[in-house]
Design brief:
Length: 226
Amino acid sequence: MIDISPTGKRITAIEHQQRDPERVSLFLDGAFAFGLPALVAVQEGLRVGDQLTDDQIARLRALDEQAKAVGATLNLLARRPRSEREVRDRLKRKGFPPETIDAAVAKLEGWRYVDDDAFARYWVENREANKPRGRRLLEQELRLKGVDRETIRQTIDETELDEASAALQLGRSKLRTYGSLEPAVARRRLGAFLVRRGYGYDVVKPVLDQLFGEHEESEDGSDGEP
């Protein structure tokens, strides 16, 4: 409930906005003051005739800004999950002040819409299914998204990446594009490609040995039989 006091400004009208029925326009002392989500107006118990102090008006404006920040984030999350840092960076670029960003993130975390554990799982599983890469690159990508090291380590460990199999499949596909190159040149390029995809030497070398063994057998027609 809004406290009635002899100072401040009086609510003279609360009208639903035509362009957005989920928002209302608040009129103070006969003039439009600002808009609010209709839900906020209901939750705050706003009624025509209430007297608002300057502090109460400032609080309502802050609640409106928080609602806008939450709405902007939900639109962003509709495309794909985001880390907390991604959300904060996007809201900062949109011009929201730090206190509004903090409040919006806290609310979204309470709803579990922003959850770095869930985001890390999504990121690793999505990469594994669509753009395979090694542990090193996955760790780097998640660090750049602002996920803490322990969450990254635990997520990747739980996913149980089969780096050898993924690198072999990726390398076999890429090797087809090196058909005109000398084997030594193709091996160097393929090795560099797999390293850029985040695979370590302990994974890359056996993959190269196997692939170029297969390549040599296909070149000379050998089937491995004496």
